[in-house]
Design a protein that fits this description.
The protein is α/β, with parallel strands linked by helices. It contains 16 helices and 20 strands. A hairpin with a 5-residue loop joins strand 5 (132-133) and strand 6.
């Protein structure tokens, strides 16, 4: 039985510049995964609310948002970033209450990065150009860049504000209007973001938020709406397939950031102490609930025993528990359903012949909340489901390898292709291996080092298209070529 012990906030939709409930008054509970308490209610939107929001966004395309100068738009978007920073403590607290992640993580990464997304893309407006072509005296061709129109942004729960702003900032910078559908499990910071946009001077109707679920709810209504011109979606690969099928009816432009089963490839010549500290992060930060987390760890045989001994010892030291304790490294998983799913993979690993070297269970003394110890599994081969399927929790497998060819074959034996990290001090091998891994992002001797100008996205079933810098602008703008006979 869930109880409301600490009311944090109720979340309403934000449509045409006003906070509103659902037409039918429906709400659902928002649960804090660290305590299992209900911390508020969330308006449950559906086709009716999506339609209102899309209509408002469509009207706003031709309102003051269109007539603003570039400098005015830059100032508004910078102000959104500034206000996010001003409200950083509050947003970090809400993000941790919604997700169960450590509050130091929300405060040092999620929220500052959300502000930076706005600062970065507002600056980027100044650099945007389109091409001019004049080959001879017959014709002058030039292209103009214009907004795509009303864009739907559908978000997952793992990095709520960071990922929402990673879409919203470039969509607005390119002049679009948006309807956002935050993940049902993490509605709070998206609600505050709507308020921040209003306070920063974003005109009514330009930014709309409709809460609700995915299938047969707000999510699918957004995808199917005929006046939505594009959908930027981050979430599971299986959801991406469903959305692609339902977007076909109105032939929408799609940007996809999907799931991953990312490899870390560790050669014996790398600096093992550095490898282990980074691998702890790439495995267990945010409870392993980051699409870029490395969940398949391949270690060259000659370094395997030493790596494992040190990696297991350091993992055992990670404090699991209260997200608001500054010493906590691993908080709670997002929901009971996800906790059961991740635990199911740990059980499956044992059935598939794996050995759990550490973790695999609820930490002692934490009876409430969806807490799971960081888990290291060995003894599985490439055909095991635990090695093949995305788990999206604090669970990694470690597998030894003998040669570059052998490890590359295993690494690429997956439908996913999001990211990888390669560890070696051999310069030629680093380039050789990085260039052959089938992934959209390959780090060498590091992990999660990001420059927002660079292309971000996945190959194979990990995504379609790229986000970041000019790549985001390409998605969020249309080019019209104008040809003048001379
Ligand atoms: P999910 O696919 O279950 O849900 C994502 C969003 O889609 C939610 O807002 C949900 O309500 C909505 N949705 C679900 N079904 C829908 C439908 N039929 N129509 C429209 N909308 C629908 O994903 P999740 O569990 O929230 O997030 C975890 C997944 O996201 C993992 O697979 C992870 O790898 C992936 N992810 C990828 C990236 C990336 O950049 N590649 C980043 C973060 C998370």
């Amino acid at each position: 039985m869930r109880t409301i012990t600490t009311k944090v906030m109720d979340c309403l939709h934000f449509i045409d510049g006003a906070f509103v409930p659902s037409a039918n008054g429906r709400t659902f509970d928002n649960v804090n995964p660290a305590t299992e308490d209900v911390i508020g209610t969330v308006a449950e939107g559906g086709a009716a609310e999506i339609d209102l929001a899309v209509k408002a966004a469509k009207r706003a395309l031709n309102g003051p948002w269109k007539t603003m100068t570039a400098n005015e738009r830059i100032a508004v978007l910078r102000k959104v970033g500034d206000l996010i920073l001003e409200r950083k403590e509050e947003l970090a607290r809400l993000e941790s209450l919604d997700t169960g992640k450590p509050s130091w993580l929300s405060g040092t990464i999620d929220i500052p990065r959300a502000a930076y997304n706005f600062h970065f893309f507002s600056d980027y407006i100044r650099t945007m150009t389109a091409e001019t072509t004049q080959m001879d005296d017959v014709a002058l061709n030039y292209a103009i860049r214009r907004p795509v129109g009303v864009v739907g942004l559908i978000n997952p729960w793992n990095l709520p504000l960071l990922l929402l702003t990673w879409k919203l900032a470039p969509a607005l910078a390119a002049g679009n209007t948006v309807v956002m559908k935050p993940a049902e499990l993490t509605p709070m910071t998206a609600t505050v973001l709507a308020e921040i946009c209003r306070d920063a001077g974003v005109p009514d109707g330009v930014v709309n938020v409709v809460h609700g679920f995915g299938p047969n709810s707000a999510g699918s209504a957004l995808v199917e709406h005929p006046d939505v011109n594009a959908i930027s979606f981050t979430g599971e690969t299986t959801t991406g397939k469903i959305i692609m099928a339902s977007a076909a009816g109105t032939l929408k432009r799609l940007s996809y950031e999907l799931g991953g089963k990312n490899p870390n490839v560790i050669f014996a010549d790398s600096n093992l102490d550095e490898v282990i500290e980074t691998t702890l992060k790439s495995s267990f930060i945010n409870q392993g609930e980051v699409c870029l987390c490395g969940s398949r760890i391949y270690v060259e045989s000659s370094a395997y025993d030493e790596f494992l001994a040190k990696f297991v010892a350091r993992t055992k030291e990670l404090k699991v528990g209260d997200p608001f304790d500054a010493k906590t490294k691993v908080g709670a998983l997002i929901s009971e359903e996800h906790y059961e799913r991740v635990s199911g993979y740990i059980k499956l690993a044992q059935e598939e012949g794996g050995t759990i070297l550490t973790g695999g269970k609820r930490p002692e003394g934490l009876e409430r909340g969806y807490y799971l110890e960081p888990t290291i599994i060995v003894g599985l081969n490439r055909n095991c489901r635990v090695v093949k399927e995305e788990i999206f929790g604090p669970v990694v497998t470690v597998i030894p390898f003998d040669s570059e060819e052998e490890v590359l074959e295993q690494v690429n034996d997956t439908h996913y292709g999001l990211s990888a990290s390669v560890w070696t001090n051999d310069l030629r091998r680093a380039h050789r291996v990085a260039g052959r891994i089938e992934a959209g992002i390959v780090w060498v001797n590091t992990w999660f080092l990001r420059d927002l100008r660079t292309p971000f996205g996945g190959m194979k079933q990990s995504g379609i298209g790229r986000e970041g810098g000019v790549h985001s602008f390409e998605f969020y703008s249309e080019l019209t070529n104008i040809c003048i006979k001379l």
